[in-house]
Specification:
Elements: H1 4-16, H2 22-30, E1 51-54, E2 57-59, H3 62-72, E3 80-84, H4 90-96, E4 101-106, H5 109-121, E5 127-131, E6 144-149, H6 158-162, E7 164-175, E8 179-188, E9 191-200
Parallel strand pairs: 3-4, 3-6, 4-5, 6-7
Antiparallel strand pairs: 1-2, 7-8, 8-9
Helix pairs in contact: 1-2
């Protein structure tokens, strides 16, 4: 169930779902999603579904990973990207294969430790990690060319807007019971353009940390 043929079927589905960026598709084909799951769930790694990773968190479905990555990169290559919510590390691995540097924050320490081991195993050394409240971002490392958020706040955190570079892109699910995926582009110092892209379903972005 983790063979190349299984992964190729996943890529075919993503193309049918409208993912067009060949760089993103190539990275998803090459990234072993099964490594980021418990062994008992590894056989389901290439299904187009979110799966549990513990601590009431999930690994996002491949379509959402591909879609958010494609949107983030749509205006061209990015040097420095902030990821809010390391989670399993799968989205982190995809980003690390496509941008110069990833700064990833996670509030649940055991998840982050596990993700770090997986990324090292894949020899992805362009990722910096921080155990902190994701809604606050990582101001010391900003500004960022791109920010990708993998959990949904009720509204876009002001702290993340402040850490976005001019022309930077923020891809974020927003809302409570009904969530929408949004793209926010910083046009000028205090001018932001927001686009609503599609309905989504993410775990909520929570404050505080777990050790």
């Amino acid at each position: 169930m983790t063979s190349r043929r299984t992964r190729e079927r996943m890529i075919s589905r993503l193309r049918e779902q409208g993912i067009k960026d060949e760089r993103v598709l190539e990275v998803l084909l090459a990234t072993p999603r099964h490594l980021f799951l418990d062994e008992a769930l590894a056989h389901r790694a290439y299904e187009d579904t979110a799966l549990p990773i513990g601590f009431n968190q999930t690994i996002s479905q491949p379509y959402i990973v591909a879609r958010m990555t494609e949107i983030l990169l749509a205006a061209g290559p990015l040097k420095k990207v902030l990821e809010v919510g390391t989670g399993s590390g799968y989205q982190t691995a995809v980003l690390a294969s496509l941008v110069h540097q990833v700064c990833s924050v996670e509030r649940i320490r055991p998840l982050q430790d596990r993700a770090r081991q997986k990324l090292q195993r894949l020899k992805l050394f362009n990722v910096m990690m921080r155990h902190s409240d994701g809604g606050m971002g990582w101001p010391e490392q900003g500004p960022f060319d791109g920010i990708l958020v993998t959990a949904a706040p009720e509204e876009v955190p002001e702290e993340l807007l402040e850490q976005l570079a001019i022309d930077g892109r923020l891809v974020i699910p927003v809302g409570g019971n009904r969530q929408q995926l949004k793209l926010v582009i910083r046009k000028e110092e205090r001018v932001f353009e927001t686009r609503v892209l599609e309905d989504v379903n993410f775990v909520p972005l929570l404050s505080g940390t777990i050790r």
